[in-house]
Specification:
Elements: H1 11-29, H2 62-85, E1 90-96, H3 102-110, E2 118-122, H4 128-131, H5 137-140, E3 149-153, H6 162-165, H7 171-190, E4 194-200, H8 204-216, H9 226-232
Parallel strand pairs: 1-3, 1-4, 2-3
Length: 237
């Protein structure tokens, strides 16, 4: 079965590379003085419906994409080499809907890096060993050596997303997880780690269309499971 190339190349990869390169360049330029401690935010606040207000129309032409992707990879490669020489560690966090393009964005980004200097950590249901430890342990143990990249394909935010929606954790665990997540991130950033977090967003109709494409393309069909369809039923939750 022939695979038809998409009319519009993935805008997400362009956005990820641009954001990441800007973040590394900005951190290299600043000094590494310790930031003042942040005040703890209240656990329960009225949150605006941010996702429903996002503009999902931006795209990029294939010609522009090809040219800029090469330039961005070149820029990122040079910056990552400088960051490694300065022992500046980078932690990337990718979250988003199923089929939002997390894997594709990571694949295009890591093409600019030396395979010896990054680790991609796919996060799924915790193992018995991980459940036996305090929550952040399962992520802390994957952190790479100084000056390297650690890339989380899904992350500790699953605690307040899928684990909460599916009732895998108690209310006490859910409330406690906010302090655990904030504390974990503060420890990393206060130590000088550069953390860049991405939420990749699509709407429900686009997800359905991508699911159908995955189902029809042999080398992508393995990505689509009954669990993915079941999760769609809990989109609003």
């Amino acid at each position: 079965m022939a695979y038809r190339r998409r009319r519009h190349p993935p805008f997400r990869a362009h956005a990820v590379l641009t954001t990441l390169a800007d973040a590394i360049e900005g951190r290299i330029k600043t000094n590494k003085t310790r930031k003042p401690a942040r005040q703890r935010a209240p656990l329960k606040t009225e949150a605006p419906e941010v996702l429903s207000q996002l503009d999902l129309s931006p795209t990029i032409s294939r010609d522009q994409y090809g040219t800029e992707l090469k330039a961005l990879r070149t820029r990122l490669h040079g910056l990552y080499r400088r960051a490694r020489s300065d022992a500046l560690s980078t932690v990337l966090v990718f979250e988003g809907w199923d089929a939002a393009g997390k894997g594709g964005a990571i694949r295009r980004m890591t093409a600019a890096l030396d395979a010896r200097d990054y680790r991609v950590i796919p996060i799924s249901a915790p193992t018995d060993e991980e459940r036996a430890h305090h929550y952040p342990w399962q992520f802390r143990r994957h952190l790479a050596r100084a000056g390297r990249f650690t890339i989380f394909d899904r992350s500790w935010y699953g605690r307040v997303l899928v684990e909460h929606v599916e009732n895998f954790i108690s209310n006490d665990q859910y409330e406690r997880s906010f302090d655990e997540i904030n504390g974990f991130e503060e420890q990393l950033t206060d130590h000088g780690v550069l953390m860049v977090k991405f939420w990749l967003h699509i709407n429900k109709d686009e997800q359905a269309a991508r699911f159908e494409k995955r189902r029809k393309i042999p080398f992508k069909s393995w990505k689509l499971t009954d669990e993915d369809w079941r999760n769609r039923e809990k989109w609003d939750d």
